[in-house]
Design brief:
Blueprint (H helix, E strand, L loop, with lengths): L1 H20 L10 E4 L5 E5 L7 E9 L2 E11 L5 E6 L5 E9 L2 E5 L8 E7 L2 E7 L7 E7 L6
Antiparallel strand pairs: 1-2, 1-10, 2-3, 3-4, 4-5, 5-6, 6-7, 7-8, 8-9, 9-10
C-alpha cells in the first residue's frame, strides 16, 4: 500500500513539475549518434518527428551483440521515456525533472532501473540509471560517434 501511495505522489509531482517547465520540451541536445570510449556501446537518437524522439542502444562484446534496446520519448505535458529492452516492452518512465540539457525519467514500480537521467556535459552525453533512492547506480559516458570518411 505504501508503494502505491509513494508512486501516486511521485507521479503527481511529475505532472505538476512538468506542466510548469515543459510547455515546449526541446530534447534536440539528445539527438545524434553517441558512443563510449571503448566503442562497444552506442546510443542513437533521432531528431524529433512530430515531437517524438526515437532511439536505440546496442552493446557489443568482442564484436558480438550482447544487448539491444529500442527507445521512444513521447511528447506531452509530461514527456515519457518508453524502453523496449531486447524488443520487449514498453516500460514507461514519465519525466520527473527537466532543464535545458538534463532530463530525468522515473518509474518507481519498475524493477530496475527506476530512474533514468540523460544530460549533456559539453560535447558529451551522459546517462545514469538507478533505483529511486539513487542506489545501484550505473553511469554511462558517450561522445559523438566518429564520422566515416566519404
Amino acid at each position: 500500500m505504501l508503494r502505491i501511495i509513494l508512486s501516486a505522489l511521485i507521479l503527481g509531482a511529475c505532472a505538476s513539475q512538468s506542466k510548469a517547465d515543459t510547455t515546449a520540451t526541446d530534447l534536440t541536445w539528445l539527438s545524434g549518434c553517441w558512443q563510449n570510449t571503448d566503442g562497444d556501446a552506442r546510443e542513437v537518437w533521432s531528431e524529433p518527428e512530430s515531437g517524438l524522439y526515437f532511439g536505440y542502444a546496442v552493446t557489443l562484446n568482442d564484436g558480438e551483440l550482447v544487448f539491444f534496446e529500442q527507445m521512444r520519448i513521447d511528447p506531452g505535458p509530461v514527456p515519457t521515456f518508453n524502453a523496449y529492452p531486447a524488443g520487449r516492452g514498453p516500460s514507461a518512465f514519465p519525466a520527473l525533472e527537466i532543464s535545458d540539457a538534463d532530463i530525468t525519467f522515473a518509474n518507481p514500480d519498475h524493477d530496475y532501473p527506476q530512474k533514468i537521467r540523460y544530460f549533456r556535459d559539453g560535447d558529451q552525453l551522459k546517462a545514469t540509471i538507478s533505483l529511486m533512492d539513487d542506489t545501484r547506480s550505473g553511469q554511462f559516458e558517450y561522445a559523438p560517434c566518429p564520422t566515416s570518411p566519404e
